[in-house]
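U., I forgot to send this yesterday:
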Amino acid sequence: MAKIRPFQNSDLPGIFEVWMRHWAAARQSPPVSVSILERAVLARAFFRPSNMMVALADERVIAWAHSFADAPADRSGTSASEGDSPPAQPTQDQGTTATIAALCFADEPGIAICDQLLQRVETELRSTGVRQINIGPVRDDRNGYAGLAPVGHGIGIPVSDARTGSLLSRNGYHVARSIDRMAVQTSTYRPPVNRSFLQLRRSTRLDHVPLLPSDHRVTAAMSHFDIERHTLVDHQQQAMLATCEFWLGDPEVQVMESSRAILSLSPMGGRLYNGRPVSIPSKRFVDPESRELSVECQFLISSLVQSLSNRQILTVETAIDRDDRKLIEQLGQLKFECVEQGKQWTKVLS
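Result:
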């Protein structure tokens, strides 16, 4: 007989098996092991077994879901992404929204119980005061799933995961936003050439600093990354012209492949390794009104992508809301391609 209960330590092998089977059904084969999944999700300081509901049949894990309470929009560690369009639902107060970062089920037993599992999670969240649930991590920087294959930067629920889309649709969820995974290969990369880029090449230099997030939750969730802030500086005026951040997989932690990097268009406040604070840049990565990259930022990104192959980083990816057509077009001119599409689903609890 099937039952649903909070996570227990003995569930780990079953959690991993369901993760792999779930994504195999979506025609993906993530390079993940039990230890990688444990480091990415279960070994976090903020992990709470009560937030992960597990469905079992004959003591075998057949489905599971992992939820988190959302942070306030103005927390000090990060700010809203420039590539992050406003959600379809109005922003609500802290404690009233939650994200289900993972919803996995395997084979026929898992499919049979997934509706009950989702309803159980909704009941648990409703009892804590949650009024809106979002499903699918988007540019995750606080729950540990960023970089874990096949989540990557986070595009919600991939379109290829049709079974989850069907589950959500019949349980009253609707699509709040659509996200494109944009990626570029560095080994054969040749940056575009134009007059503005040539002038910037002569008059600027590239600087970078390692960054530790200032928010404790973000620090814990991003501990498997080396975060670098790169800056384009004018030679004569010593003025910052553009900046962006890259999340690189820490080879000692081995959650995200070291041959991949994530381009973040979300400025993050933090500190250097010596403790000196690094503020969120006043010059935004993406213009908040036009939703466009400046010429300087385009040059910075193209220069960095070209140099990453020397560090054995072969793929750079980022997640962009599909409504930001101009931003997608600009990244396309920088030779990024849409390699996958996803959707974040939402539901207001009654």
